[in-house]
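Risk register update: the risk of archive-format incompatibility is retired. Evidence:
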Amino acid sequence: MSILELKPLQLKDIRAKIKHVEQDIKNTYGVTIKLSFLHTKENVVTDVDLDISTQATVGAIKRAVLDYFQCPEETLITGNREKSKVRVRRFFLQALKEYTDLSLKQQGLQVGGRDHSTAIHNHNEFDNQYDTDKSFRAQWMEFKGYVDKYLSDLEKSMPVTLEEVDAKISHNDEVAKIDAEILALANQIADATSIDTKNALLDKKRELVLKKEQLINTI
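Archived output:
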């Protein structure tokens, strides 16, 4: 059986994950879980101008994609052109388009720091396959139902609203300072022409993201 023939995880498996999510929320007052989906070692970019609600949605979509296709997170950020891996990224970017208000640039950044042209190409290819390939269309509808359920269960498990978390964090000066540093690094990463330079900047950015997450956990 190929990876594209795999079915979504059964509801009991989803509920087991939600239980783990709930415990994390209890331990960190509703903050870490909203960020941990996004702030993982492999993730190269987190847009600091996104509110916590959007960050949580992006992170949950990412986890749903990885669970559905049963693949590692590296699949989303590498340039591997194998058909199965291309489809993972195609579904992820399309889900970002349909479930969030991310700009094309922000969508591209979520798949290995790429630019808006990656998102545009993906959406054009998606539309073409959706219109001409019956099996592709059926799998997308199955996947979309899976994401809907995943997001719904995740939202129900949160003991505080995302708006409350946003308000709590947005008034913290230290968080704002780190956000400014992360944004500056993100701009440098976008302009970097050397792979070594970009990787060095990404390492610095990950350190700041971790510092921010640790700070938020103390607020």
